[in-house]
Amino acid sequence: MTATRTPEAAAGPVVPPPPGPAARRFGPALRWLGPVARRAGSGLAVLWAAATAAYGALRLAPGDTVDILIGEGADTPGIRAQIIREWGLDRPEIVQYLGYLGRLLHGDLGRSYQLQRGVGDILATQVGPTVRLTLAAAATGVLLALAVALGTAGRARRLRRAASAAELVSVSVPPFVIGILLLTVFSFTLGWFPVSGAGDPTALVLPALALGLPIAGVLGQVLREGLERALEQPFALTARSRGLTERALVARHALRHALLPAVTLVGWFTGVLLGGAVIIEALFGRPGLGQVTMLAVTGKDMPVVMAVVILSAVVYVAVSTLLDLAYRLIDPRLRSVR
Amino acid sequence: MTEPVSVRTAVRVASEPLVAVEELRVSFPSAGVEAVRGVSLSVAPGECVAVVGESGSGKSVTARSLLGLAGPGAAVRASRFTMAGRDARGFGPRDWRRIRGRFAGLVLQDALVSLDPLRTVGDEIAEVLAVHDVVPRPGRTARVVELLASVGIPDPEIRAGQYPHELSGGLRQRALIASAVAADPELIIADEPTTALDVTVQAQVLRLLADRRAAGTAVLLISHDLAVVASLADRVLVMKDGLVVEEGPTERVLSSPGHEYTRSLLAAVPSASSRGTRLSAPAVPLPERAAGHAPEVLAATDLSLSYGSRRAVDGVSFTLHRGETLGVVGESGSGKTTLARLALGLLDPGSGEVRLHGQLWSGVRERRRRPRRPAIQLISQNPLESFDPRHTVGRLVAEPLRGLPRRERRARALELLERVGLAPGLAARHPRELSGGQRQRVAIARALGPRPDVLVCDEPVSALDVSIQAQVLDLLAEIQAEDGTALLFVSHDLGVVHHISDRVLVMKDGRVVEEGDVDDVFFLPRHPYTRDLVAAVPHLPT
């Protein structure tokens, strides 16, 4: 095969004429407004679906709500009737559902069965440590991945093999095992970091590593492959032919191309972080949403479970909206698609 | 970074070659390939030297080696290698970087991928200015606009802020050239700079390179196309299998070639004068086609199809008779591929109709169309994309023969392979293991399976080397003579269409602007667009 192609194959998309004066003035704003509005609309739909699914799961869950609400307390028909009245359990199903949606819209997540406190309050006190942990883990993962990918892409084969092996191990070992290993080495043996708690900033180091390593593994691999692919493209050859250094080539050209597939992974690792936080918080004895969720699930504290489900959905929707915009920011070819 | 300027004057004074290499050998030890096996060439200031060859001849590797860009796995050796008056064999990365872009600029094929798709063309050009610090930062934007204007890009201020995909193929390629010449190099190395461009755009880009040359820049032109080289080069080197088989002044090499390979290359180029003869074995006439009045097999009346507000095909009519070849030429976006799909019944027209054997073919339900499909088959440009990569060649060819019992099917598949000149042993191979020419033969064998009356060929030879193209065109002509198959032959290549067609439709913006006997249309074009097209085709000296 020659490199010959017909004009057809190379013509690509229909080329728009240069934009008129009006489009030039308002173009950028309009270009971004449309997609944002569309994403927000579909995001709301997803949130509604998540809320409804959580509500349905609650109604279908085995066990009587009244039993759970009574818990270890005195169980008399009078108390039962009072609880049913208080929680509105005697009203028709549809009224209860709409009431629930209405309260959600006002930001009222309901009351915990177990703790007898507003779910919103409980989450508000617990969300901070979890946010700190997940952000620290994400930053660890991204920085490690970038460092490894930039250090090994296009380098000696032995170096790439070693990085690749390390990445494979970090992905295939579950985070709690990594956590235990880190604890054994750095806390119990070396005593560099505290074993548990959240007060001290150093207490964040090991949990963030345990949670961030698997992300670094996958992301590092994707980034390196992306970099290596970009460095083989004709535009990289053109850039080299201008006298660019390899480092400038990576920084100005290849890295952006490598980021595109990596950005796709952010959605995946949001899930890893949220799920992993539950385990890591338990392992390191950190307060946070993970612990609240564990307690709520074992204690059938459905309003709390539902709230966590909805919160996760909010995080997902927000992240995927941001990702969509990030794509457009990185790749101009997506901006001109209507 | 002022050194290149002094180097430059030194070269001018001595009037030494800008680059000279002797006994260049480039191998890729990890792949066990020696791509270049002892090539000597030199380019003097202001000279245009062309390297011509087919795929795998080593021409691109040679060009890249001259910039030290043969690749990380390449081993480059030469008995002499001077660049800008210095011995390039001892160049380190820093020496090479001073040469690249400043002393010699590189232009590759297809700026859609040769310019960074994520950066504006202005940024790409400014990069050269920044790397070699030829223009201080505050003046760069203005210089970029100047450069874009100098390569003939209208509205350079707007274009500088646009991305490669927002520019047409021609403008893109000009922008790429602007980036290569931004630091005003002594030498431009252009590797297939016009491949994949429409013929009129190709003519413009070639003119641009000619202008540069007239202004004193030397050009090393790499191409598979002898005709492209003919108009521009002072000297030409013909490469085959990593060696230069012939070199000399362009005029002499192209009009009285000394080497047999050059002769066969030139003979393989389809054109008006090659009609009726074989391209792969010149002077051997093709079998005579049955003369006399032939029945009509395919007819289209007033076909139109719009995509949104764009009319892809607009009021096109044609008839195709048994044993006849109807060529369809046009540039990208002219609607010729859409017309081929309408003819195949893969698209239904918005208005107008297609009749196959006199019966309505367009607008009928697929269930009714399916039993008649064997009568009309497709040969596409890229068989690899139209084949299931997991099927063997035998299975691919046998696929349309589903009506036959299993044993007969296999026998017929082997028979078809033999007919297109493929060894039966290939039946067990996968398409990826075949060469481009072999793949296209498999596609032809598969299309012949249902014994079609019409073959719709959509750019069937556009991805092939000229010698392979010659064989495939010969094969199609033979099949047509033997079976009386009618060909609807879509191509952007006027030479190919002139060689193979009886009549031709010239398409532009979805309309047929001119039609008629192929000699009449191409020798005496009446429509201005046809005239432009014919004039834009680069010619070999006769």
Fold topology:
The complex is a heterodimer of chains A (338) and B (542).
Chain A: H1 7-11, H2 21-60, H3 65-70, H4 77-87, H5 93-105, H6 119-152, H7 157-172, H8 175-189, H9 205-232, H10 234-241, H11 246-283, H12 289-298, H13 302-330, H14 332-335
Helix pairs in contact in A: 2-13, 6-9, 6-11, 7-9, 8-9, 8-11, 9-11, 11-12, 11-13, 12-13
Chain B: H1 3-14, E1 19-28, E2 33-43, E3 48-53, H2 59-65, E4 75-77, E5 80-83, E6 86-87, H3 93-99, E7 104-107, H4 111-114, H5 121-131, H6 140-150, H7 156-160, H8 169-181, E8 187-191, H9 199-214, E9 218-223, H10 226-230, E10 235-240, E11 243-249, H11 250-255, H12 260-268, E12 296-307, E13 310-321, E14 325-329, H13 336-344, E15 351-356, E16 359-360, H14 366-369, E17 376-379, H15 383-386, H16 393-398, H17 406-419, H18 436-448, E18 454-458, H19 466-483, E19 486-491, H20 494-500, E20 503-508, E21 511-517, H21 518-523, H22 528-536
Describe this protein's structure:
- The complex is a heterodimer of chains A (338) and B (542).
- Chain A has 14 helices and no strands.
- In chain A, helix 2 runs antiparallel to helix 13 and helix 11 runs antiparallel to helix 13.
- Chain B has 542 residues and is of the alpha/beta class.
- Chain B is globular and about 70 Å long.
- The two termini of chain B are 48 Å apart.
- The interface between A and B is large, with 40 and 69 residues.
